[in-house]
Amino acid sequence: MTSTVAGGRLLTPGEVAALFRVDPKTVTRWATAGRIGSIRTPGGHRRFRESEVNQLLAELTTDASTPTA
Amino acid sequence: MTSTVAGGRLLTPGEVAALFRVDPKTVTRWATAGRIGSIRTPGGHRRFRESEVNQLLAELTTDASTPTA
DNA sequence: CTATATTTGGGTAATTAGGGTC
DNA sequence: TGTGTCCTAATTACCCAAATAT
């Protein structure tokens, strides 16, 4: 299955929620607030682009400046 | 190369605070001071890497076989 | 078509962020 | 210097039932 359309993979709210360690409902709010792009299925469910999610995740990630001491 | 957007589970400030027996506010200060890496949700809340937290815990653990000075 | 897991929607508690102070 | 506690505002989590996805 999965047509695998050339381009980006689509993630479900549950997948994105797991990446950020938040509730799927929260991801929905991000989409509603325009903080993250979303694609709606004909049924009204949201899907998110993996590339955009990873990009967002990378931008919001802060590494410790003092690793090991 | 240790990826930045994948690896281990993420912990909430309250979870980390419970592990260290400190106030969540203190964990926030650690993140602000750059002593521990953090991932911010689009809403501004922080999530911490369990592996990094465990490593920090191990480093702070005063062990007989762990000469810190 | 049936069946299971997920997502949606609204509303309310719990947690977190940020500043200031001890 | 580091931590705990005060406050308010914002964000997030969990409750329900119905609809959608696979």
TrEMBL record, chains A, B:
<dbReference type="Pfam" id="PF12728">
    <property type="entry name" value="HTH_17"/>
</dbReference>
<dbReference type="InterPro" id="IPR010093">
    <property type="entry name" value="SinI_DNA-bd"/>
</dbReference>
<dbReference type="GO" id="GO:0003677">
    <property type="term" value="F:DNA binding"/>
</dbReference>
<dbReference type="InterPro" id="IPR041657">
    <property type="entry name" value="HTH_17"/>
</dbReference>
<dbReference type="InterPro" id="IPR048048">
    <property type="entry name" value="BldC-like"/>
</dbReference>
<feature type="domain" description="Helix-turn-helix">
    <location>
        <begin position="10"/>
        <end position="59"/>
    </location>
</feature>
<protein>
    <submittedName>
        <fullName>MerR family transcriptional regulator</fullName>
    </submittedName>
</protein>
<dbReference type="InterPro" id="IPR009061">
    <property type="entry name" value="DNA-bd_dom_put_sf"/>
</dbReference>
